[in-house]
Amino acid sequence: MLVLTRKGGQDIVLDGGIRITVVSVGRDRACVGIAAPAEPYLVAVG
After folding, report:
1. Residue 18 covered by a domain
2. What share of the chain is helix, strand, coil (3-state, %, to 5)?
3. For burial by CB atoms within 10 Å, which of 11, 20, 32, 39 has the most?
């Protein structure tokens, strides 16, 4: 597992044009947004 620390408004860009944005950070949770091309198949794990 790769663990990264980001502040609100910062992005992580992955290969294939996938962009993960930290939208907001609270005391015990973070809200993230994911932008990706229509082609990739995404699977949620957890």
Report:
1. yes
2. 0, 40, 60
3. 20
